[in-house]
Amino acid sequence: MRWSIILISVIIGVGSIFYTTNLATELKAREQGLIKLYADALEYAVNNNADENLSFNWQIIENNNSIPVIVTDGYNEPINHKNIDFREGADEEEQARVLKKELALMKATYDPIPITLLNTDGSIYDVNFIYYRNSYLLTSLEYYPYVQLSVILIFGLLAFLAFNHSKIAEQNRVWVGLAKETAHQLGTPLSSLMAWVEYLKNSPMADENKEVIEELGKDIYKLEMITARFSNIGSIPVIKDENVIEAIEETVNYLRPRISRKVEMQVHSDTRELTAKMNKPLFDWVIENICKNAVDAMKGVGKIDIYIIKESEQFVIVDVTDNGKGIAKNKLKQVFQPGYTTKTRGWGLGLTLVKRIIENYHNGRIFVKSSDPGVATTFRIILRG
Ligand SMILES: Nc1ncnc2c1ncn2[C@@H]1O[C@H](COP(=O)(O)OP(=O)(O)OP(=O)(O)O)[C@@H](O)[C@H]1O
Ligand SMILES: [Mg+2]
Asked: Which atom of ligand 1 is nearest to the CA of 347?
C-alpha cells in the first residue's frame, strides 16, 4: 500500500512531466515558425509599395499578440516593439530601460532574424533585426514541470506520512485494546484462584502440600503482575530509579525453577548498587521474554549469562548471552518485527513487546549485539542511568 502510493505518484509525475515537456517543445517549434512568418511578412511589407494590397501581411504582423518582439535598426537601437509589458504609467525613460533589458534577454535567448531593407533599385539600404523570445505561455510551460514535480513530491511525502501515521496509530489501538481486554478477562479467574489457595491453606491437607500451595501462591502473584502489565499498556507507566541488579535477580530467581534444570542462569556484576530508570513490572517482562527465548534456542541444555555494566554516568548496559542455536545474520533486525517467529507455537510478539517497552517507555535501546550460531547470542539493552 505504502509503496503503491509512491509508485502511483512517480507514474503520474513522470507521465505529466513528459506530457508538458512535449507540449512545450511543440509550442516552441510553432512559435519559431510564427516568428519566421512574422519576419517575412514584415520584410515584405516594408520593401513593397504602399499601393500594393498588403492587408494579408499586416494581418500576420498584427496577429502576433503573444511573442515579445523588438525590431532594431542597423545600430542595434530599438525602433519598434510588440508584446512587451510596461508598467502602467511608465514614462519614456522607463520604457527605454525596460526595452534595453528585454533586448539583452532576447539576445541571450535566440539569434535575431535579419530584415533587409532595399532601395527601389534593389540595392541594400539597411539591415534591421528582429529580436524575440518565448511567449509568456511557453515560458511558464517550460517552468511548469519543475513546479509539478515539487507539488507531486510534496503530495507524495504528505500522503506517505499520513498513511504511515494512521497505520501506526491503528496498530497502537489494536495493541492497547488487546492488552486491556486480556487484563480485564484474567481478573475474574484470578480472584477465584486466590480464594482457592486461601481455602487450601486452611484445609486439612495444607501441611503435606505446603510446598505446592506456596508455589501456587507465587504463580498467582505472578499472574497478577502479568495482568497489571497488560492493563498498564497504553497508559504511561511510572519510570523511577530502581536497583537493576536486584530487579534482574528477582526475575531470574522466579524463572530458575520454571525452566529446564539443565539450563544454568547466572547474573554477573561488579557492584551490588546500580540504579537505572525503569518501570519494574515492565522491565521484568523484558528480561523474562529474552530469557525464555534463550531457553527455547537451547533444546533444554545450556547457559544464560546476564552481565550488568555501568557504562557511564548516563547509561547502564544489560547483556543477555546464551549459547543456543543463534540467529542468522540477515535476521538480526527482523526478530523484533511482530509476527516473526521460527517456532511452531510462537506468536512472534515477545521481542516486539520487549523493543516497545525498552524504546518507548524506557527511552533506551535494544538490539542483537552479536550472534554466532551454536556458540553465543547476545541481546544488549541500554537503559538510562
Ligand atoms: N536467543 C535467541 N536465540 C536464537 N533465536 C532467537 C533468540 N531470541 C529470539 N530468537 C528468534 O527470534 C524469533 C522471534 O522472537 P519473539 O520472542 O519475538 O517471538 P517467539 O519467541 O517466536 O514467539 P512469542 O511471541 O511466543 O515470544 C524467534 O522465533 C527466534 O527465531
Ligand atoms: Mg519469544
From this structure: 25
Cell of 238: 511510572
Ligand 1 lining (C-beta closer than 6 Å): 289, 293-294, 297, 322, 324-327, 335, 340-343, 346-352, 377
Query: Which residues constitute the domain of residue 335?
Result: 238-384
Instruction: Kindly report whether the global pTM for this prediction surpasses the value 0.70.
Output: no
Residue type at position 204: P
Whose CA is closest to atom 29 on ligand 1? 341
Nearest CA to ligand 1 atom 4: 326
Residue 353 sits in a domain of what CATH number?
3.30.565.10
Q: What average pLDDT does this structure show over 106-112?
A: 93
Domain total in the chain: 2
Crossing angle of helices 136-201/210-232, nearest 10°?
A: 160
pLDDT by residue (tens digit) across 297-327?
998 899 999 999 999 999 999 999 999 999 9
Measure 348 CA to ligand 2 centroid, in angstroms.
6
pLDDT at position 63 over 90 = no
Q: Domain for residue 54, yes or no?
A: yes
Distance between CA atoms of residues 74 and 206, nearest Å: 122
